[in-house]
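ugh ok fine here u go
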Amino acid sequence: MRRRTLLILPFASTTLGGVAVARAAETDADQPPGHRVSIGQLQQAMAQRFPLRYPVPGVLNLDLRTPRLLLLPEQNRLRAEMAVDAAGPALNRAHQGNFDVDFALRYEASDRTLRAHQLRLSRLRFPSLRPDVVEMLNAYAPALAEQSLQEVVLHRLQPEDLKAIDAMGMQPGPITVTPTGLVIGLVLKPL
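structure:
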């Protein structure tokens, strides 16, 4: 299998976005072979989904601004630093806060996308709000994070990217977070 993978990877890398895996391997032996996605590409895809509004009817609106993504290669995860604005009848004025969510990635074959999963949420922080109000907001925080990030598409492979790989019986496999972005590995399709 290793021999088959080594023969396929140079060809597959050319079809997956024009990345030359053999050349990358020469320059960075610590990076796994596969299709590379930069942090800039991930940030750009994330920006297309935001801002988002989550109303709590009759109480307040939570508006999420575009998160800033950070790579966590030592955990094979990403972190999204989320800025949130809270305003509405329950509050005297608008308040700005933030929270962090870190998550792993999964490949969704049905639409060729990389998506966030296994979310871990930190508490909402609103310096200008009373602690009891922050506690109430934290009651909504897990649902807010789930709704805002669970189905976020961080990258989409194009059909032409996968055509040659599919013909060779391969498919996208494990996703590795590196200091510069992601590497989508290739694995044999199940028989």
